[in-house]
Amino acid sequence: MALPGAMSAGISGLTAHMDALNVVGNNVATANTQGYKPGRVTFKESIYSTQSAGSAGTATVGGTNPQQIGYGVGIGTIDMDMSSQSLDSTGRGMDCAIQGDGFFLVGDKTHDIDSMDALKGLTLTRVGNFEFRDGYLTDGQGNVVYGFITRSNGDAPGTTPGDKRSTDLVPCRRLMKSSYPNSKGVAVYVGVDDQTGANVCPDNDPAATVDGFVDLENSSIDKSGKITGTNKDTGDPVVVGCIALGSVENLNGVLHTEGPYYTAGNAAGDIRVGTPGNSVTGNLRNDKITDGNNVVDPDSALAEGSGATLVTGFLEASGTDLAAEFANMIIYQRGYQANTRIVTVTDTMLEELVNMRRSEMELPISPTPPGVGGLGRGGRLDD
Known about the structure:
Number of strands: 28
Shape: elongated
Largest sheet: 12 strands, antiparallel
Number of helices: 3
Helix content: 10-25%
Strand content: 25-35%
Mean pLDDT: 88
Oligomer: single chain
Structural class: alpha+beta
């Protein structure tokens, strides 16, 4: 490798170590950010120049090994440590942290999960700072939390809660309150459309007599993700539903967007949906998601056996280990300084070569001494 090659290798080292320092800097800056997953850097060698491919031995001589010169270094991977972290106590009954693998699923109010592909339109997060806003369960950024709402005993909306929740994955929202004279203020539970499997919400059903959302007090979320509260008008206990959890095939394949949010791109694989502690079972959309042959899609089965539960009154802490980050910072700083030296030395050597060549070109041409043969007239040599 010539001198320009050595400089190129040094510059690649500067770039790679600066990128690594940028990752460390971000990890340190977010050391107190709930739910943050720290980045991790690995390096890889750059392409090699083969001077000799090597040879096998013969009857008279031994073989030779390959001779190769590398051209520097680059970033191999920048991935995230997605493991569960310690928990920060908040004391709020609506705050919850996931103990185990999985993500909360958030999105907007209108996203319809009518197929397995539609799950990719939801956003993933590990930060469960939840509260009810305008009737909907939302996170700290106003994104609506998805889950399974308690259904009535019958298919049509009614006032009697059933023993199970609908498996139609929808935005979690408070139940509607009845405006019927004999049951005024009582929670009206959702029904299920037998043809589509979608929830039949009372406020969209002409047959239901409702007047806005139930006023809840003492709202809380338990370890199974069940959302409960007390009907302020009647004093009755109300079960809103259950928070859903999503999991992916490759945790390191999720794409960090901004804040505590991720999307499940192609590298992450498919999203599977379940609930904490497997508190809701069955198939998504109440068995109405099919595989194209009018058969229930097996992938729509709610995931079981994940073992993830919720810890209420806590949020997941940042995954940054400051001691490890400071150690990495020193290592990358030393690497950067060493590559700076390579570039400086190479630049000095190139400058010396240029000056040497310039000196040769500027040497004066000595005149021909008298009596020494030279070119005469007509280009002939003088005697």
